[in-house]
Write a structure and sequence with these properties.
5-stranded antiparallel β-sheet, flavoprotein (chains A, B), alpha+beta, FAD-binding oxidoreductase (chains A, B), FAD-linked_Oxase-like_C (chains A, B), homodimer, Alpha-Beta Plaits, 7-stranded antiparallel β-sheet, Uridine Diphospho-n-acetylenolpyruvylglucosamine Reductase, domain 3
Chain lengths: 568, 568
């Protein structure tokens, strides 16, 4: 394949698109450290038995040790693609192809560290315009290629990987050059933005004109608008601004017969919603190139306050009461006791005055009769005019008190705000030390949340027993709605020789618990291949058949990211 | 067919399902009268030239004069259907079949008055359970029947009528016996309700337990939950409670391969949204039997206040400012000057004190420099705790003043609240007097509303000229959203010998204006056959093809209400 490489851009060095480190989350040189967090190592030792003071049992792998399957791209296809995007924008080198093979789930990280590459894309193509995307789609159909759109690469449900036995040429379509805010309709609060725009770049362009989109998923720093739409993302401030499905008004998606154009109208009664078919389509219906989203003027005031509750049950009840009240906070979040302990354990060492304050608080709460091991930390965010923020803080404060909780001020909220995008780094750090950790999230009606939560613990603990590990599940409520909320679970254990098999047992236990308890298979991570085994349980067999009918009719040749969502 | 009739229930006399009068809106004996509204006849004379003081040029037709095509139902199908629902619930009489042929659009009313029945359903079937619906669906596929679900019969986009050249047996599936509120999850604010429940019955069942759904379309008194979902309905209080698509969490829809069950979760990331495919599907994907909707505790306080604005532009700007503000009213509505004049003209004669107040107000406004002919009436609704209502009224009051408007108290709002469901009676009344009137509604971003509005007037006036009539268009903004609003147009003219051809010209002019101005083909009436000519313009040709693919894959035999939405 050397000839082909010489013809195409051998690497993406000259292409101005940011990618995460090939073997893990985030940018090179940034990682989680615990040396300045004295409570962290003892916490980890206690809950999952992993000794962080020992040597790392694994380190970031060496790329040179990996055996990367060669590109199968054929000369005519390379020529066709190069004609469209220019030779420098068809990239065939191993590193680029590996970066575009997986997302960043624990399954992805373990496979990449172990050089498990049943199939990597044969080329990475960087279109600069919708018209280039349209030509790539035409080429894909002409040559029977498989197209997999790629945004920031943060996916954790396997939506980016080629099917292992794919015989056809696989092209990863990196949308990173389509990264501009094209227009802001200031009268309507609507911004037209290209699908490949990454969170920080996009917010910067909007902020410069006084606007914000207000969509901040955990992956924000490394994910794209197109990716958010394609996976039905939800952000940390979605309580106020809505999930991506609520924010997304207009869309453009390239299909073989042209561009589907969804007008950015506030509401429409035009049959089954095409907008809502494209949202969540994970590349299976076509290539999303442009999205018109609701944007908001940067608020006068923005605050995140911290609260403590004597128990998880009290915290949940308080969030429910807030959702039922006239208060409209931007964030409602409460962690269970394990995640609360983890939060305190990841804080930097308290010294001097702040250590005294912390000890004073603990004494006070003990005197109040709290069991500090059951204490739950909550963050509630407020945005708007000074008056709106003040009023909402007062409304919430009353509700918190009524449920036995107490406010602990802005300090922890500021800290949360600074650290909020750092969590994904823990997956890599933990893996370095022989631990496996990942997440599962669901949504359910208020009435089902607590039974679901208990079932998740029971089911996960049975799974930990089965695989013979000391495991931990932590949880938080991350978003509130009128009729229910999202519960977000993090699970971790010290893995053995077959970490993926162990992971499968635990993951299955948790997803099964969602399904039997009336939750959904996923609240905002999507389906990909990771959640598709539970999709029929969630949407019913006839529902799945209806969805399959849509996918098959839209993609008879299975050229658009086949195998994702429905498994077919 | 006498034998068949003898076997089946000849009429629906014994079936406890309410229907509207066969030839028009609402219940027998209720109609619009203008005798007690002295300003009405002069207004109508002025704006469209129709003389209401003359004799009615038409009267409700006599059923006996009509020539109703006989039922084509064959004995084996009758037997099969009767086995499922019982003989008394398969109805073949002419009156029942006519009631189930059309909705209540002007096209429907004109056709029914003129005995135009290219095709009527061959039978009306009244299932009592989802399991009966499932058996009917199986029978439909076995015998290649056409199934058309029927709720309250209030549709105005032609979604209920059989295709004129349909050769197969057509069955109207009246959902009226599936009318119960099955369950209220008080913890989650979710009610499980059967699809055939009519608005008032449903609210009564909810109210009895302290709940309300808060969905009040114009058709409320004669429409069903299933119909609202199938057509993407929106209600008068949707500003606060959301459109039906927002309220609908869970769904059950019968398909040939079983029941699609959508879990009532607050949000989900499970691929293209099946929920949003079923909402708006107008019977084309299957039969909706049950819906889980968000419900709310009956508010402490509920008020509708009236406001006046010096111009339509000022009224629109004020609604936009309210949508951008911290205020969260339940209703935002402002009528243009023509509809305002019509509103005053349909008021009962003011006498004594109230006449003096009215005159005083007019003098006051003139002194302020208002041109009373440009004045626009607005209604804004508030619901919630006393404190919430008070606060919102204050917030809105400031915005109204800033835009040159003024509050005129509760009186008109109470009147509006009482009369709000009466408007559809006007269509029949006006037809009695030789006038044709109907409605078209759209939604567009704030920035496009005023240009769209002007284009509608220009385009409609060209149409009136073309058909040589004096016509009137009235408008109001009926719902506000973050990024735009719904504009609702009523048009009327004195029709000639070919009212439908004239209507077609005017209707086309208005829908064309929506499309060229960036609006949607319909905000909440649906597509049916009336709006399908504009669907490709709205959702783009590739978008329409994607939708057609879904419909074809879901209904290969075209047994589910064929021809609706996409025209195929």
């Amino acid at each position: 394949m050397t000839d082909l490489k010489a013809k195409a851009g051998a690497t993406d060095a000259g292409i101005d698109v940011k990618h995460m480190k090939w073997w893990g989350w985030g940018v090179e040189g940034v990682a989680f450290h615990h040396e300045d967090k004295p409570a962290f190592a003892p916490f980890v030792k206690k809950v999952v038995g992993v000794d962080l003071h020992g040597d790392a049992v694994a380190v970031a792998p060496s790329f040179d040790d990996l055996d990367i399957p060669a590109s199968r791209l054929q000369a005519p296809v390379l020529a066709a693609l190069s004609m469209i995007v220019g030779e420098g924008h068809v990239v065939l080198d191993d590193m680029s192809r590996v970066v575009h093979t997986y997302g960043k789930s624990i399954r992805d990280l373990i496979r990449i560290r172990n050089g498990v590459f049943p199939r990597v894309p044969d080329a990475v193509v960087y279109p600069a315009t919708e018209s280039e995307v349209a030509k790539i789609v035409a080429t894909a159909l002409e040559h029977d290629l498989v197209l997999i759109p790629f945004g920031g690469g943060s996916n954790i449900v396997g939506a980016l990987e080629p099917q292992p036995h794919e015989e056809r040429t696989v092209v990863s379509l990196d949308m990173g050059r389509l990264d501009r805010v094209l227009d802001i309709d200031e009268d309507s609060g609507l911004a037209v933005i290209q699908a490949g725009a990454q969170g920080p770049d996009m917010e910067e362009q909007l902020n410069a004109k006084g606007w914000t989109m207000g969509h901040f998923p955990d992956s924000f720093t490394h994910s794209t608008l197109g990716g958010w739409v394609a996976t039905r993302s939800s952000g940390m401030q979605s309580d106020k601004f809505g999930d991506i499905a609520d924010m997304t008004r207009g869309l453009r998606m390239v299909r073989p017969d042209g561009v589907v154009v969804i007008r950015a109208v506030p509401s429409a009664s035009t049959g089954p919603s095409l907008r809502e078919m494209i949202i969540g389509s994970e590349g299976r219906l076509g290539i999303i190139t442009e999205v018109t989203v609701q944007v908001h003027r940067i608020p006068e005031k923005r605050e995140i306050l911290a609260y403590l509750f004597p128990s998880w049950e009290a915290g949940l009840k308080a969030m429910q009461a807030i959702a039922e009240s006239d208060a409209t906070p931007s964030v409602t979040r409460v962690s269970n006791e394990f995640e609360t302990e983890m939060s305190f354990a990841t804080s930097k060492e308290s010294k001097g005055a702040s250590a005294l304050v912390m000890k004073g608080l603990q004494r006070f709460l003990k005197a109040k009769g709290w069991n500090l091991e059951k204490m739950c930390l909550s963050f509630i965010g407020y945005e708007g005019t000074d008056e709106h923020v003040d009023r909402n803080e007062k409304l919430v404060s009353k509700i918190v008190k009524k449920h036995g909780g107490m406010g602990v001020g802005k300090g922890p909220g500021v800290l949360y705000d600074q650290k909020k995008f750092d969590t994904p780094y823990l997956r890599d750090f933990f893996l370095d030390h022989g631990g496996a950790a990942d997440v599962s999230e669901t949504a359910a009606p208020w009435s089902k949340l607590l039974p679901l939560y208990r079932e998740v613990y029971a089911s996960a603990n049975r799974a930990f027993d089965k695989i013979g590990v000391k495991g931990l599940v932590m949880a938080h409520l991350s978003h509130s709605y009128h009729s229910g909320a999202c519960l977000y679970f993090t699970f971790a254990f010290e893995h053995g020789e077959a970490p993926l098999e162990q992971y499968d047992v635990v993951k299955k236990a948790i997803q099964d618990a969602f399904i039997v308890s009336g939750g959904t298979v996923s609240h905002h991570h999507g389906v990909g291949v990771e959640h598709s085994p539970w999709l029929a349980d969630d949407v019913s067999v006839p529902g799945l058949a209806l969805m399959q009918g849509l996918l098959d009719s839209a993609d008879a040749g299975a050229n658009f990211n086949p195998g994702k969502i429905t498994g077919k």
